[in-house]
Structure prediction request, 247 residues.
Amino acid sequence: MTSEAAVSPKPMAASANHMKSGTKADLAARAPLVTLRNIDKTFANGTHALDNVSFEVRQGDFLSLVGPSGCGKSTALRLISKLTAPTSGRIDWHGGAPAAGDIAFVFQEATLMPWATVWDNAYLPLKLKGVSKGEAAPLIEEALTRVNLLKFANSYPRELSGGMKMRCSIARALVMRPKILLMDEPFAALDEITRFRLNNDLLELWQTYDWTVIFVTHSVFESVFLSNRIVVMSPNPGRVFKEIDVS
Ligand code: ADP
Prediction:
């Protein structure tokens, strides 16, 4: 395994507040992107996962869904990405539903193809869209550069640390140039130092690409560090307990 420090020579960002400070006014003024209205979700086995959940995500938000395991955070994310449908309630996209490719999902497991190199893993979504390797090359180079993995382009997942695998997974999302990034506890399995580096790098990417990020975590620290808005959820069934504007 390669050490995470070896691929992250950059100094860490001064702080999340520093990273976010220039955009506070902008963020407050930005238009709503998607609104969840009175969402209820009961699974086929009878589990009442979400009860009357409502919240709004604005353009450019870094919004964290935080709460204990089982409070419905992942279910809310899956509803937004249309991987599952609500039992009742509505999800309104202001300005029309996002096109395919506008939303990218990053999971806790990096879910890389073990037989493919870092480059080929990053290429996969473009390959599925029918983009040739030649056309994809500049996009992949930019994505791998952004996540500090370019010199590991020919490495295989087994040769990477956990943090590097996650960087590769983020690069795979980056190549699609998404507008909205959904992240489901992406750094939960990583050690604290690697996690902190990736938190910093993610903030930089968020600013660079002007993404809207919806980030699921059970870490209050991580949510405060990263987000301009936090939706705190409570379990049994999942409800919105509190909304906090960090900026
Ligand atoms: P969190 O992300 O906050 O840990 P989840 O959204 O994963 O919570 O789960 C909320 C509740 O819904 C949990 O009780 C979980 O067991 C249940 N659940 C999640 N997905 C399914 C499913 N596909 N079928 C049945 N129950 C589910």
About this structure: The pocket of adenosine-5'-diphosphate is lined by residues 43, 45, 47, 49, 67, 69-75, 238 (CB under 6 Å).
